[in-house]
Amino acid sequence: MNTSVKYLLKRLGIYAISGWAAVTLNFFLPRMMPGDPVSVMFASFRGKLKPEAIEALKQTFGFTDEPLLNKYISYLSHLLNGELGISTAYFPEEVSSIILSSLGWTLLLVGISLVVSFIIGSLIGMIIAWRRDGKLDSILPPSFSFISSFPYFFTAMLLLYFFGFKLGWFPIRHAYNSNLIPGFNIEFIVSCLHHAFLPASTLIFMGIGGWMLQMRNNMIGTISTDYISFAKSKGLSQKRIMIWYAAKNAILPIITSFGMAIGFILSGTILTEIIFSYPGQGYILYQAVQAQDYQLMQGIFLTTTLSVLAANWLIDILVLILDPRTRK
Amino acid sequence: MGNKILDINNLNVDFLSEGASIHAVKDFSMHINKNEIFGLVGESGSGKSTVIKSILRILPAPGVITKGEIKFKDQDILELDESELSSLRWSHISVVKQKALNSLNPLLKIKEQIIDTIRAHEKIKTKDAMERCNALMDLVEIDRNYLNSYPHELSGGMKQRVVIAIALALKPELIIMDEPTTALDVVIEKEIILKILDLKSQLGFSLLFITHDLNLILGFADRVGVMLEGELVDTDTAEIIKSGGNNPYTTKLINSIPDVSDYSQTKADKNEPELIHVKDLVKTYSRHSSFFSSDKFHAVDGVSFNVNKNEIVGLVGESGSGKSTISKILTKLIDFDGGQILFNGKDISCITKRRDLLDYRKKVQVIFQDPFASLNSIHTVYHHLSRPILIHRSYDKYSKKQRDQMVKKEIIAILKEVDLSPPEEFLYKFPHEMSGGERQRIALARVLLVQPQLIIADEPTSMLDMSIRMEILDLLKSLQVKKGISILFITHDIASACYLSNRLIVLKNGKIVDSGIVSEIINNPKDKYSKLLIDSCESGWFINQ
Amino acid sequence: MNRSWYNLIWINKKARLGIIIVSSFILIAAVGPIFFEDPNAYIGTPLLEPSFVHLFGTTGQGQDVFAQTIAGARSTLFIGLGTGFMIVLLGLIVGSLSGYFGRRIDNILSLIINIFLLIPGLPLMVIIAAWLPPGPFSMMGVLVFTGWAWQARVLRSQVLSLRERDYVNAAIITGESNIKVIIYQIWPQMLSLIMASFIGATVYAIGAQVGLEFLGLGDVDKVTWGNNLYWATNDLALLTGSWWTFVPTGLCIALVSFGLTLINYGIDEISNPRLLSERIVKSRLPNLFNRNGSTPVARELFGK
């Protein structure tokens, strides 16, 4: 079998095991905690559901007296059917539908910020590493480093305060103007972008520093290699060496690290959404925590984990395409 | 203008540091004539690479040229600006370095790397550029299809030839080669040197060839220069240098070229029992990114030999022959996949328990190739030498004070034995405070303290300066006789193997191709390869084939 | 080199600044609260702007922001440093076992490390913290559980490469036991990495801790930086324009994290000799230095 295919399958295997570990952890977590969290969980249902419905829910999620293995299997089968339970914070909506409706907004933010911050950050990193003539290199890395030291939500708060509250240039909450009806019309799309601007800017602002630093450090490492000095001695132009010899080699490890970065970016997005009341996964997670809505919390955990694993696999494919050395 | 193509006068290069600068090159003056081969010889740290990099001004920080002029056909390179330098580089002077695999960009195809060299200096259509690529590949005898491959798909020798092709791409007048064949095996080295000489006669360029291997360069250079600690101490025609040169250092270097005919005449006592017996040893590795389609690689492919008590056996092989693998297997650092190894009659694969392993280690010890790497830089000599004592002697019943005294006494005694005096001065030194030869003696002392029956010496002198190698070999010889230890001397240099050993084994690609007592191998080599190894000790060996 | 390690760190400007910042905060955390009574006490009208009486103003519940900021340092730093230490300890042990023994042990441990790295941190932290009773040990437990893998991987890869050094093999062949080889031959060569790991882990711990508390999953009764921000949001700081309720705490968090990161930069520059070489040439010959250009010729400076 082709080594590339073997490699991808092996990676898929690791993701499958991780997914299974997450799912299993989800199952055992409430049962491992001190105290009786189960009753707490179902106490919040009391008064909202009939006792028979509560019993049925208990059955569905295995909080019964059956042997552990049976409970586990029924739990897994419910998961595979996409049943994640009923939310208490958004009662009586199902967890799966809540998550689905908010997933899109989060993906929008993550997508925009990842692409923009990566491109800008890498470009800046490449240039300051190459030129290294003092000014830019002494100012930018430390400044961005300082900004990256802010907690994500703090930056969000600052941006919200200045541009939303004080200057009023951007709206301070939600994903689109509540007067509008969602649809593929210009007005709606513009409103979406207008609302997404501040949260996305927060993420981009915080994210640029990381990409810039990585690219800069990788470039510095690449610049000292023998093939760069060979290229220089061949008389190649600075531009050609910088892009095709140095940057091309420097960027590869960064793309490989995309996978790790996604988990990080997701965390930042979650916190940012809360500040802007932006209706993505982060916002509903916050509501879930406030309302002690364990079903929703666990549902979000599962969907974010699975999304990250899927994204990682796509990145593995991307690396395989970009690096000829992996394709033997 | 005259006949000189390169004329260096009073070149001085410094390396700046926080404190005082380091004068790496001092008042270096030499010239190269048209169509001449000039060999620049020196040991590591002599400054030869620095001179080369300064010629093209590609010396990285903290290097700074502080004085002198470097004239290429009347232009002083040190006066040129960036763009003039760019156009000078490669179209007039090009460089081939050691370890070509590092010179090629791993992410660009071979043809792209040749074409961008050409494009950097001339405007050329893609079709014409490809024609030139094809011609270059033919010139260095590599199949044209490899133009579409990436560097990792080629073997080491092929990559070196690609780098040579790139160096020739713009038909420069001067080619500088910095140790281009070190780390390649004798067979390939011969091919490449012959190819270079052939190309030179076809294309007519001058060659500046840098190496530490005096023997090699004396075979084909017109003139030779000798460098020591940043200075050019001697320069003359090859014949004069060969006969000793004009400087005592040159004479010392010439004398330390090992002479194969000066071999150990002593034969081992045939009645000594077998110490270690190796039968049909096999070790395979699976290669991941390899040029070969098969996944498995036989590092050791059915090797059988033995070492008796009180003898020195020389295991001769080049890189890739499997000799280091054998060393690791015999010291139980790695497992083996087939065959049997008996030590004093007992099968060593049965040694699994900690106690038995410690017992085995008491009997089999190793000296490594790189003396800097085998001594942990953060520990003193005292630490390095006290460990074997404390591990292998039972000093539990003594008090700490008594124990320390006994340990110190033993360490001082062993330091005397390896000729490090005064021993007290060495006790608390760190590795970086000692020379290569001194460190290797410490490594030897460490081994002797264990009181082993077999010492595996894995290339113990190849990283030492030539002048010191003989001293270490003589030390090994005398200690072997004194203590009756057996030595398995692993090396790529057949001459030193002959000097030290009673018997020889020649290894190639994981198999034994020749073995026997030294005089037999020298006078009657059974295999083509062993003959080639022996012949390569003569200077100019490749030419007479 | 190791003896003058401490001197080297201090000489490096970035590291020095970082050390000063971090030590100041540690001092404030240790000594500061003595000067205040109960930071939670009601001392005045809510949401007062900063003034001479109340340096940072008051919170939405009438508490002194300055007192709260100072008091918050103690808990946040204590948990941050403590977690950082435990993460490095765990990472060092797992990484060393994995990197040193290799093969099967490495396969299993690496798989575990990879799984922990893949599962996104914040959601995992949230669900665990949600189930646990509040308190410093729960917090540290959650942080260590979700954060140990990163450092473990970094330390493992260093152990893996050091394992192949000749001096390690020499020690093994001399007969040294595996534990002694790891502790006396490998770990001493990793000191700067271990230090950098500790600092990195602490930065992570502070950030994650603040994040959890901001969500309301910390011990809401205690005064910590994260909780200060939680209450500020709850009391609608942004909508009422009361920037003073969250900016001081946010800045403190940023400064401490930044200070720690600076120290790490310093450590990196010291362990990276090439950067040092370039700086030296740059400082001596500013007009001639061009990192991608040709070797400079400095005849004038050194005399003909």
Note down, in words, how this protein is organized:
The complex is a heterotrimer of chains A (328), B (545) and C (304). Chain A has 328 residues and is mostly helical. Chain A has twelve helices and no strands. In chain A, helix 10 packs antiparallel against helix 12. The longest helix of chain A is centred in the C-terminal third of the chain and has 39 residues. In chain A, 42% of the residues are buried. The mean pLDDT of chain A is 81. With 545 residues, chain B is α/β, with parallel strands linked by helices. Chain B has 20 helices and 20 strands. Chain B has a six-stranded mixed beta sheet with strand order 6-7-8-3-9-10, sandwiched between helices. A six-stranded mixed beta sheet of chain B has the order 16-17-18-13-19-20, sandwiched between helices. Chain B has a four-stranded antiparallel beta sheet with strand order 2-1-4-5, with helices on one face. In chain B, helix 14 crosses helix 16. The longest helix of chain B has 18 residues. About 1% of the residues of chain B have low confidence. Chain C is mainly α. Chain C is 70% helix and 0% strand. Chain C contains 13 helices and no strands. Classes of the chains: A mainly alpha (328), B alpha/beta (545), C mainly alpha (304).
Keywords:
heterotrimer; B: 545 residues; alpha/beta; Rossmann fold; six-stranded mixed beta sheet; 20 helices; C: 304 residues; mainly alpha; MetI-like fold; 13 helices
